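I hope you will forgive my troubling you with a question about protein structure. I am sending you one protein, given as its amino acid sequence and as whole-number tokens for its backbone shapes. Thank you for your consideration; the sequence and its tokens are set out here:
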Amino acid sequence: MQSMFHLQSPLLEKILRPMIVYIFLVLYLRIFGKRELAQLNPFDLVVLLSLSNTVQNAMIGDDNSVTGGLIGAFSLMAVNWLLIRLLFFSPRAEQIFTGTERVLIFRGRMNHKAMRRELISEEELLGAIRKQGFDNFSDVERCVLEPNGTFYITGIIPSAGDAQNDTRHRELLARLDALQAEMVAVKQRLA
């Protein structure tokens, strides 16, 4: 029972280990790209799960005490709290740590150079736009991979002068007029 709360490593070591690992992981995700945060394919998921197990001992060392675990958890929370505040108050630091957005589709055309930089295949990108309700790339005005790994997608809005849209618009108005006439007739019969 006593060993449950007895620290087996110096206090400073218990504080520094999780902080060092945290900073390394933040930089690792920044260097290896937003792909790790975007759509996880089975390979990426295995890497992230293995990564957590790999760095576990680096964070806690040989100490398995409750006190050591609580100090480690506190250290992680503290460094995260500090980093979030730094990023909030310093736009330059935010850009360094989080990166910038990357436009993957613009006006229905894929940006293959940006896709290569982010290591996103056409199939993965198609899957991302389909999750947002678009059938193909030509339906997308703009697809941006945000620094946090999410996709922001906007659709192409047909122009008002498009002949097909004008025809559909006139047909819709004619149907609405017919429905309105039917409703007037029904009201007159009921009155």
Observations:
- The longest strand covers residues 140-145.
- The chain has a mean pLDDT of 81.
- The CA atoms of residues 83 and 94 lie 9 Å apart.
